[in-house]
Give the backbone structure.
Amino acid sequence: MQVNLKIRRYNPEREDGVYWQTYSLDVPSQFTVLDALMKIREEIDGSLALRCSCRSAICGSCSMRVDGHAKLACKTKLNVLTEEGGEISVEPMGNLPVIKDLVTDMQPFWDKVRQVEPWLQAEGPAPEREYRVPNEAMVHLTDVMNCIMCGACVSDCTVLEAELKYGKPYDQTFIAPAALAKAYRFVADPRDDQQRERLKKLSEPSGVYDCTHCFECVEVCPKGVAPMDRILKMRELAVEAGITDKAGVRHAKAAEQSIKASGRNYELTFYPKSVGLFNVKELLPAMPTGLAFVRKAGTRFLLPHKAENVQKIQRVFKKVGKRNKENPNTEGQA
Amino acid sequence: MPQHDVVVVGAGLAGMRAALEALDQGVDVAIISKVHPVRSHSAAAQGGINAAMGQEEGDNWEVHAFDTVKGSDYLGDQDAIELLCQEAGEHIIEMEHMGVIFNRDEEGYLARRGFGGASYARTFFVADITGQAMLHVLYEQVLKHHQIKVYEEWFVTSLIMEDGRCAGVVALELLTGRLYPIRAKAVILATGGLGRVYEPSTNGLVCSGDGISLAYRAGAPVMDMEMVQYHPTTLKESGFLMSEAARGEGAYLTNSGGERFMQRYAPNKVELAARDVVSRAEQTEIDEGRGIDGCVLLDSRHLGKELIHSRLHQEYDIAMTYLGIDMVEQPVPVRPGVHYIMGGIKTDVDGAMNIAGLYAAGECACVSVHGGNRLGANSLLDTLVFGKRSGRHAADYAKSTPPAGESEAVITPDEGQIKALFERADNGERAPLLRTEMGRMMDEHVGIFREKKALAQAVDKLKEYRERFQRASLHDKGKVYNTDLMFVLEMGFLLDCADTIAASALAREESRGAHYRTDFPKRDDESWLKHTLCYYTPDGPRMDYLPVTITQWPPAERTY
């Protein structure tokens, strides 16, 4: 098939900065984006830089944005993206500095992985043979160990994007989906004895409560790891473990109360309730953000009116609450 | 100038295991890898890792060792194989304690599956992502032991040789394009395989035989290089690996008539005969017109959806993504494809070789435990057992060795070579295209079935490629992240590897293991129960031979 690959190029050694270059190719229709990029690199333009190795979605090297979303180039077929003669845009992953063309600097990514202390921490002497654990626990963890650390979820994480866009105090401190999924791998491992300590740390700012449940990481993950689901599960586990005196928990509680009472998100109250009403140190720096909110949302933001169907919403709360009580193991959250 | 006691080249399973052990011995350790550790090709190992821990069923290390000796077609060194199998169990437990999430049985103990050429189910596994699961856990340990310095995305261009011993490496930092000497008292090569000599291959693009070539150029012999494993089940078109795990769980191989043809070739083990046997059988079926579009079929339908999704999900994904085939509903077209090199740098059981200060472990080394044919799930075991041993011995050696010299001039030859490449005008000769051409030629001439004329042609062809390689030019003349330059340097390594494969295959006039000569179809223990060795000379490999170590299993007829 005839296809045009529009690639975002950048070479720090050249003065032209970032530019887009389009390559027209005639390739078999079952070609992947990686096949096409390799063809360009081998036959047309050897200066095109990208990472790749296994070609079969195992090594995690070739994450990049294809038509605006993070994908593994080797797992993305051209004919799924476009028709004969169509154009496909290819650019490096987002939320990470670019080194050259499609190659990003992964150091911030690995730093966050390191931050969650991603190694098994078992107390006491190890058994002579293997740890005896249920197979279901290991199979459950396999879904998370499926993560190949490709960075797609980090590339398209909207929290990181916002942190990047609005700068300090949001200086990309969010531990982000990949590293949090990695943390879950240990939190949910019956052999690990640091579950509570881990959950405590992960409940701090930049941890599990910074996720805005936008589903982007679930959407783009090429291995079905569903980082967001792991993050939400860790919130649940943390609360179960009695780790409730955290801004994130108070924020969630404030939201719950607000919605229960009025059927609306009365956001103005969330932040003070999260950090504490008299926490001037935290509240002052947040004033500009608060004022920006007011400017944008106007009176709706200041004086939210009650939703008409608030009783219906309250019934939903009751129902879910009852269900969770009856069956505490369900994944459902209020 | 960076300086370490032990430098490990390569960060796959063997490399990281070696580094962790060397650190444990109390020396200063660094890892140099041209890719981030988790990108290493160990991640692609799917099926599992062997250890004879099912004593209650009658399995023990000696049965495992015999299976391995028989699998090797009696070319493996039996003293090394004994060690491999004796130490297997402790490595499984060690990895489990480190955090590997091995599948369990109903009682919560480690589960095992059957695998090719094995008398008992002794393959421990994590679904069909065993290599990945182990690689990530070793990387976790490297993160934990942050004293290990990792030179990530540094490409080793040559070994520093001084006074006849190895004293470090010269390496190119991909980010800046600068060459550095990295001094070390001992160097461990753990660079993996050379699958890219062939096209197609299950191996990742990084598997370019770097370490094999580096040692060979430095004067170390490479052994049994003709022993190239064709994996029986690689996917149609792309050539991606479809793990032996499927057959281990009970999948069938069928031909165009729907016949389970392996019943004819290996009545006892059927689909779970050794890989060389199955690959040859498949190729025979295909050549004799009982294939389907150049393939046979891997049929897993009777295993059921649940098992496929829980234990073979990666294979399921690969068939689905690249062929649009649902393994639960349809058989998958597969064919034999290049997968593994049994040969490699000749080492002893401690990873040492004929060059002081230089060690090798993993696929790039040849101890030899795989001989003429490696059994499935023995490669991961090999990486751990000999990775650890070489790490320990390299550390010991480093402790008793004075620091290496400090001359910066050691980078001059490599610098000159790269400068010449940059200055060479574009003349249309491109290393990546030359590699593909060479790969196809090797698959055709030095493939499953071999004979003298084609092998001699291969030797000549390789000379021609080498001449053309001298003209290969670069599109990218920049310093930063120049992968174009890396391909040229890798092509140089691949050519060395191909030379030794073709020369050894031409020399061995018998059929043994993966090496099948149509002009010498029988195994000939009288003349050929010996290893082939290749030494580097400017005119091509010089052949030599070495006896096979036999401890308790004299050669016998090999049937499955």
